[in-house]
Amino acid sequence: MPLPEKPIPDLERDAGGGLMHRRTFLAGGALAVGASAVAGLPSQASAQGAIGPDQPLWMKTPGAPFRGYGLPSRFEEGVARHILQPYGELSPGAGVSMTPLQAMHGTITPNGLHFNRSHNGVPDIDPDGHKLLIHGLVDRPLMFTMDQLMRYPTVTRTLFIECSGNSFFNSNLFPEAMQVPVGMIHGLVSAAEWTGIPLAILLDEAGIKGEAKWILAEGADAAGMSRSVPIAKCLDDAMIAIYQNGERVRPEQGYPMRLLLPGYEGNMSVKWLRRIKLTDAPTHTKDETSKYTELQPDGKSRQFTYAMDVKSTITRPATGLAMQGPGLYEVTGLAWSGNGSISKVEVSADGGQSWAEAALEGPVLPHALVRFRLPWQWDGGPVVLQSRAHDTAGNIQPNRSDWSRQYAAGQLYHCNAIQSWSIAADGEIKNVYS
Amino acid sequence: MSIVRTLSIAVGGALLVGTSALAGPDLGQEASPEEVAAWDISVAPDGATLPPGGGNAQEGAAVYEAKCLSCHGEEGASGEGLADPLVDGIGSLTSEQPMKTVGSFWPYATTLFDYVRRAMPYEAPMSLTNDEVYAVSAYILARNGIIGETDRMDATTLPAVEMPNKDGFMDYSARP
Fold it and tell me: What number is the average pLDDT over the span A62-66?
């Protein structure tokens, strides 16, 4: 690690509870770590002397040969998605698998850990038997084979997808905070580098009629998932995604292709896409009336709540992990907004009385996950850690009580409330409401 | 995404092909009206795509008992370990325990036909005839007290059904 050129500042306090300035690690911290590492090595090497029986086994036997498709280390087997099936064996394909955020770092979700929400299982689609129809209010209805679509120009973007039901464990469905790993609370968000065909190109080829104001997008799964999307979004930044982190979209993510609407609630990015109908009004499908709508205390429901609101959570320390005694920690987590880019993330270690600005790991991309970090000196006493994200549209993440008040009892969608982790003196981390 | 914006502006002019790097190769095959009709299974509130056929609640009871009861319970009431209830909750939306069902929450009866035809019964979607879908939809509407036992649901009557919560959703038309 290169040494900083300017003088190393003292560990600087930036807010209560031991939060330090966001540049502390980059300056003073780096030097301290570097020094101890260098001090440790030579003595160890000289004590062991020449090559001999003390060397690790994996240096003395040939490693595994090559394999076609790589897998994680067998020692990482415990890193797996959290699976919830609300209907159990009755309807096993309705439910979720959630990204284990507590076990992960960076901002990209490996394809095997991307969350999956499906309503009647993951279909096993043969791409040669799958077509896409574009029809309705168009000059000429068009049918595309997969091979034809593979010849279209593409765009590539790093984007998050968040289920509108993400964080339901903190919603009005649970008046008492539940003690589950952070991945189970917030793991219905994932991010990938998606490559696909701008939807505008295909719609243009079909010829959009003036009266067309919406599309209906329909999937080829056993739930026939279907959602209405305003035409403006389709012409702006919607794509038909064919690749996910460089490989073909996984079956759970809509193989051979899915709609992808940057920033919008995940359910609208219809997977296993097979049909797009241009319409003058929304179709009011089951999953945009009965479900994925938000009932308010006055009995009226919000409908077509497209964008996922500004949100963040600390992923470390967080539930699912344990503290290792007092001392220096890096608080880190993820922030995102469906309304643009993250402009700022603040962290509090005193239950929201004071806030310190976290460092954002660049590049900070719109509609993508952003990693934030902040050094924190834990004195071993009980604290409540929180993060609060701001976006470029001027939105700020609300307290849980303020979020909760907007909706009727039992409502769960679009929960972007501030996450609070209480840390006890014994190091136990708990989900708490504030 | 500025490239696509540029494209959609270019769409206004007729000379799109060749003027934008993102123009498509125009490979789609024109679909015939029969092909489109076979694929177009969605039913909007205007009911324009509802198929011929029909049925009433009395006929629907048999369909329900054979194909739905095991998961949605006696007369749609659900139960321990079962799937969503299809009845009750009318008037509960402003209460301490709102209950959302087809009867209490759904704004349009057409959605019921659309959804049951495409997705139910859960283990055999798209296995019901159009008459069966009309009849079982009538059965669910009748169990909610929205229509009578012998009211026939078809392409004309179903879109005309007034659901209790038809005005329960906020205006979205001002949105982008």
Answer: 96
Q: Is residue A36 classed as helix, strand or coil in its secondary structure?
A: helix
pLDDT in tens, A101-124: 999 999 999 999 999 999 999 999
Nearest 5°: the CA angle A207, A210, A213 is 100
Beta strands, E only, A173-299: 189-198, 214-219, 226-230, 239-244, 247-248, 258-260, 273-279, 294-295
- pLDDT by residue (tens digit) across B1-26? 333 433 444 444 333 443 344 689 99
- Inform me whether the C-beta atom of residue B23 falls under 8 Å from chain A C-beta atoms: yes
Q: State how far the Cα of A283 lies from the Cα of A268, in Å rounded to an integer.
A: 13
Q: Which of A143, A226, A410 sits opposite B42 (nearest CB)?
A: A226
Instruction: Give, in degrees to the nearest 5, the angle at Cα A324 between A322 and A325.
Output: 125
CA-to-CA dists, residue A63 to A57, A59, A359, B58, angstroms: 10, 8, 40, 70
The region of weakest confidence among A249-258, A349-358, B3-12, B81-90 is B3-12
Does the distance separating the beta carbons of B23 and A143 come in below 8 Å? no
Q: Which residues of chain B have a CB within 8 Å of the CB of A220? A: none
Among the ranges given (A22-26, A79-83, A148-152, B75-79), the one the predictor scored with the smallest mean pLDDT: A22-26
**Domains defined along chain A, listed by start:** 127-300 (3.90.420.10), 311-432 (2.60.40.650)
Crossing angle for the helix pair B109-119 and B130-143, to the nearest 10 degrees:
130
CA dihedral sign, ordered A218, A219, A223, A229: negative
CB contact under 8 A, B97 and A285: no
The complex scores an ipTM of: 0.89
pLDDT higher for B1 or A155? A155
The rounded mean pLDDT for chain B is 89
- Which domains does chain B show, CATH number per domain? 42-160 (1.10.760.10)
Residue of chain A nearest B94, judged by CA positions: A299
- Two structure tokens written together for A273: 């896409």
Pairwise CB contact (< 8 Å): A120 & B114: no
The C-alpha of A40 sits at a distance from chain B's nearest C-alpha, in angstroms, of 51
Q: Which of A222, A236, A286 sits opposite B111 (nearest CB)?
A: A286
Q: What is the pLDDT of residues A391-408, one digit of tens each?
A: 999 999 999 999 999 999
Question: Quick check: B108 and A289 CB within 8 A?
Answer: yes
pTM of the model: 0.91
CA distance B160 to chain A (A): 15
CB proximity B17 to A under 8 Å = no
Beta carbons of B24 and A204 less than 8 Å apart: yes
- A-chain CB neighbours of B29 within 8 Å are 142-145
